[in-house]
């Protein structure tokens, strides 16, 4: 199924590990170069700016090919309009297959052809079905899943997650107002099931080729689960989809559940992340807590903005201070010790700088050397040099 040589994929993973060891100071630069020379890998681009440049170049190439075909097919306008996006999608699939045969992976050129093919698949189905959203989402999700499984394209997994979510949403719209009313609960259940499925697949993954894409899908489920029943999202979607205007003194149905969900889930994410040492879940929990605070302030301005920001800053400072005091002496697990791999001792250097500036500690001044030199017997007597 995978279009690339698996041996070269494994070599790429080993080279990445060697680069990590080099940055951590475990191996020398010559050893790193020797590993890169002895292990042939795929043509990838780790520099994001260079990769964007190649992506733009690939888009220009893709558009040039499609433009030539468009000039040829202009003679039959109606027929060509109905089939042009199918032809452009085929060009994308053929182009990425040729690039894969030449070992281009995460290079930029392959991104242009993969994303272009997915875009044209969606446009082609939209023209054929006259914009039937659920069918468009179905075909785009199938095409993006194929791109991920065959070409190990992580962005295709992100497209798959959005397309499957859109398929669920438009499918619920087919049931009318009842489907729109229960959409938050359906999305919550879907995200929970999808999360445990991806988690189980990751735990049983024999090969690491699909790990990054599955991890992205797993993280997407966490975000979707929280947003599905967030009070602000549910209330605004209810007004948009059902036309329900919340009058003063009233609230949306099950408002207490959505309020509790908005605050309980981020705290649960935070506790779970600290317990399992899951860094991605930890960042998601921080963002969810911030969005929960924004949700309440969006409808209830309890304090002026400047007072709320001041109190929030004091609370964050207290949390940061006591967390540092608690973790700075720990040697394992969650700790404030510098990470040798990531060179994260910048925080410790910053702490020392703050302490020095606060208490007025100045650098040590070297005392001026004495004008009289001692030793070697150079002045009115014998010494270690034996001179007189």
From TrEMBL:
Regions that span the bilayer: 48-73, 79-100, 112-128, 134-152, 157-175, 181-198, 210-234, 254-271, 280-299, 305-324
Keyword vocabulary terms for this entry: Membrane, Transmembrane, Transmembrane helix
Region annotated Disordered, chain positions: 367-388
Claim: Ribosomal protein is one of the keywords in the record: no
Compositional bias ranges of the Gly residues kind: 375-388
Protein name stated in the entry: DUF2157 domain-containing protein
Protein species of origin: Flavobacterium ginsengisoli
Organism ancestry: Bacteria, Pseudomonadati, Bacteroidota, Flavobacteriia, Flavobacteriales
């Amino acid at each position: 199924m995978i279009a690339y040589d698996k041996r070269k994929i494994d070599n790429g993973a080993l080279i990445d590990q060697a680069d990590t060891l080099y940055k951590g100071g475990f191996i020398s630069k010559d050893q790193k170069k020797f590993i890169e020379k002895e292990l042939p890998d795929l043509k990838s681009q780790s520099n994001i700016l260079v990769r964007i440049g190649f992506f733009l170049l690939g888009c220009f190439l893709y558009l040039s090919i499609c433009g030539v075909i468009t000039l040829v097919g202009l003679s039959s306008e109606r027929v060509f309009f109905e089939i042009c996006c199918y032809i452009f999608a085929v060009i994308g699939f053929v182009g990425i297959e040729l690039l894969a045969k030449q070992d281009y992976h995460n290079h930029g050129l392959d991104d242009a052809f993969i994303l272009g093919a997915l875009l044209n698949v969606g446009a082609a189905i939209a023209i054929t079905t006259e914009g039937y959203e659920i069918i468009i989402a179905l075909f785009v999700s199938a095409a993006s899943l194929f791109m991920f499984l065959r070409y190990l394209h992580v962005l295709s997994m992100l497209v798959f997650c959005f397309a499957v979510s859109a398929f669920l949403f438009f499918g619920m719209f087919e049931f009318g107002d009842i489907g729109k009313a229960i959409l938050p609960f359906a999305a919550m259940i879907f995200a929970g099931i999808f999360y445990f499925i991806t988690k189980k697949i990751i735990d049983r993954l024999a090969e690491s080729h699909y790990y990054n894409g599955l991890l992205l899908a797993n993280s997407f489920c966490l975000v979707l689960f929280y947003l599905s029943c967030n009070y602000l999202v549910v209330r605004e979607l209810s007004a948009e989809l059902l036309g329900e205007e919340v009058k003063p003194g009233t609230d949306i149905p099950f408002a207490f559940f959505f309020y509790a969900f908005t605050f309980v889930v981020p705290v649960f994410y935070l506790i779970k992340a600290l317990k399992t040492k899951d860094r991605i879940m930890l960042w998601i929990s921080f963002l969810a807590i911030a969005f929960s605070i924004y949700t309440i302030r969006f409808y209830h301005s309890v304090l002026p903005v400047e007072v709320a920001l001041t109190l929030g800053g004091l609370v964050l400072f207290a949390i940061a201070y006591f967390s540092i005091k608690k973790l700075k002496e720990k040697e394992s697990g969650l700790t404030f010790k510098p990470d040798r791999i990531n060179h994260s001792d910048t925080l410790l250097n910053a702490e020392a700088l703050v302490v020095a500036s606060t208490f007025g500690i100045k650098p040590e001044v070297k005392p001026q050397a004495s004008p009289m030199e001692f030793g070697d017997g150079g002045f009115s007597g014998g010494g270690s040099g034996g001179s007189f």
